[in-house]
Amino acid sequence: MAAETHLIIMAGGIGSRFWPLSTPEYPKQFIDVTGRGRSLLQMTCDRFAALCPIERTWVVTNAAYVPIVRQQLPQIPDENILAEPAARNTAPCIAYAGWKIRQKHPEANIIVAPSDAYVRDDAEFRRIIGEALSYTCDRNAIVTIGITPTRPETGYGYIQMETAGAEGEIRKVASFREKPDKETARAYLEAGCYLWNAGIFVWNIKTLEESIRSYVPDIAEGLDAIAQSFYTKKEGPALAEAFPKLRKISIDYAVMEHHPGIHTIPADFGWSDLGNWASLHSLLESDAEGNAAVGPVRFVECSGCIAHVQGTEKVVLQGLQDCIISCSGGRMLICRKSEEQRIRDWN
Amino acid sequence: MAAETHLIIMAGGIGSRFWPLSTPEYPKQFIDVTGRGRSLLQMTCDRFAALCPIERTWVVTNAAYVPIVRQQLPQIPDENILAEPAARNTAPCIAYAGWKIRQKHPEANIIVAPSDAYVRDDAEFRRIIGEALSYTCDRNAIVTIGITPTRPETGYGYIQMETAGAEGEIRKVASFREKPDKETARAYLEAGCYLWNAGIFVWNIKTLEESIRSYVPDIAEGLDAIAQSFYTKKEGPALAEAFPKLRKISIDYAVMEHHPGIHTIPADFGWSDLGNWASLHSLLESDAEGNAAVGPVRFVECSGCIAHVQGTEKVVLQGLQDCIISCSGGRMLICRKSEEQRIRDWN
């Protein structure tokens, strides 16, 4: 099989944990969270550019966000921006993109990735993804990227590797584990065979199609019923009718936990899901008192603070300890870092 | 003398203690500091409206602020907005306005007032000013308004009344006192014959002219030299040449401390100079935890905070104690209330 690499970027999240930086109208993946002048979606595209050309990059997002994607990625073909009429979790999202790709690109070897993660070492990232692509191009296998854990994180799902039967860097997956409690997370870290689930995985189009047909046949049927409309003017109306009826289920529950050929590559390229303020804080450069900022912030007698101030000219913060400070588009939040899980209740 | 009431509002301050709410480009007097939908200047005009018609109201301000005054007080005649080419403190400011008024209104009885103070009881305020106007209309006297102190305030100058020789509510002034230290302020409060100097005073045009001629003759001469240009096209250029050369001196040092006919009326109309964040906090309504806000602020586990957030849609503050929180025009400040005297150093 002469593989042709494709990339499906999932960009439909609403990023409610980063309010007010992220809002349902303009969520996290479209924001310059790290202060480098590029949104997380743009950085994701940049990171994959050497692996997959833009004309084979597909962005699946909510219909409401299509104009933002078009504006942020002007080089992407319009037909590669797939508009979900409703949020149905990741299985329908990936299946829809897969069904579209299959019609025109029966040789596709596909990377699926979220749009809003951070990677420090792009070169190592590309090397790892390249290994995964080589493995899946001619096998009925799924290779999911596993991040070597550096702390007993309770905010991520884990991948348990099998201890025997490695093929080069590729390992078989023994099981997927939900977000653990602190004690379990510590045990995982010590055991050495658990990896963070980065939600990035690679499979070829045949594996994708067969997996959907086998494990979530209702989703396959729903898409088969409208597949004739794809790439025509009827696609939008057909999708609007059919998509909201597809089962709301994640790709992990739908496929990963059932497929016999799940593999992983332990990777170490400085990854973060940027899932909360603490994770942003940990990857930004901090001053001697542990303060980090994106934006024109002056810290006076502050310590342990993380500030992200969009559209500001000058910000002075004095006498704050361990606080999150964020403003964006007329909204402002200041709270203790220890209380960040309550942000969703306040916005 | 058939008195005709005039009002001189001094609106040239730059309000550096209220940064970022107040900036040199748009200082405090032009801002809706109290959240009632009117700027301090507008509220000052409103307060005097029943005492003095708008066509006899004069606003002296920095040339740079003339467009703001015009926009905020559209009903005021253009020629009543006096543009200072430079800031020379209050004596040149008042003398210039007096010299202009004298040419057209030789019967004027004049109130001089700052543009940025707060008054709770407007009716009592008008009654007191009315008393002062009655006293000065036919006397060579200056009546300055003295506020009955309610706390040992160290941020205000004080007026010492003479204990004997009252004429109705009018009392002779024994002396003016600079801002005291805490101990002295306590002694003033106990003594009962000290009042806060509100910087509001009343005199007739003859007293004004003679005082300037007697005590700061150089200022009188400077204005005499350009008086022929007043109300003509030559006024602007003449003033631009002459005004910056006038002595930089306050009306207190120039006149008040020398004039033999200084009187005061002890008044109690809920006055504040709104000179700092603490004074704003004290006049706003606070919640049960002592938090007060102007703007759409939600306090969560905060206490003793004062927030003023301009142009915001939603602000959530959690876990802050005794802080000032302000944002305006892309600038933001958060600091401990105890440190507010340092705000000038940060902006």
Walkthrough of the structure:
- Chain A has 347 residues and is α/β, with parallel strands linked by helices.
- Helix content of chain A is 29%, strand content 26%.
- The first copy, chain A, has eleven helices and 17 strands.
- The interface between A and B is medium-sized, with 29 and 29 residues.
- Strand 15 of chain A pairs parallel with strand 17 of chain B, so a sheet runs across the interface.
User: What is the N-to-C succession of helices and strands of chain A?
Assistant: EHEHEHEEHEEEHEHHHHEEHEEEEEEH
How large is the share of residues in beta strands of chain A?
25-35%
Rg calc of chain A: 21 Å
Give the % helix of chain A. Answer: 25-40%
What strand order characterises the main sheet of chain A? 6-9-7-8-10
Summarize the biggest pleated sheet of chain A.
5 strands, mixed, barrel
Mean pLDDT of chain A, to the nearest integer, reads 95
Brief write-up:
Two copies of one chain form a homodimer. Chain A contains eleven helices and 17 strands.
What attributes characterize this protein structure?
11 helices, homodimer, 29% helix, globular, five-stranded mixed beta barrel, four-stranded mixed beta sheet, alpha/beta, 26% strand, 347 residues
Topology:
The structure is a homodimer of 347-residue chains.
Chain A (H helix, E strand, L loop, with lengths): L3 E7 L29 H9 L8 E6 L3 H7 L8 E4 L5 H15 L3 E7 L3 E2 L2 H15 L5 E6 L10 E4 L9 E7 L4 H10 L2 E11 H11 L1 H8 L10 H8 L8 H6 L5 E6 L3 E2 L4 H7 L8 E3 L2 E4 L5 E4 L4 E5 L4 E6 L2 E6 L6 H4 L1
Helix pairs in contact in A: 3-6, 3-7, 6-7
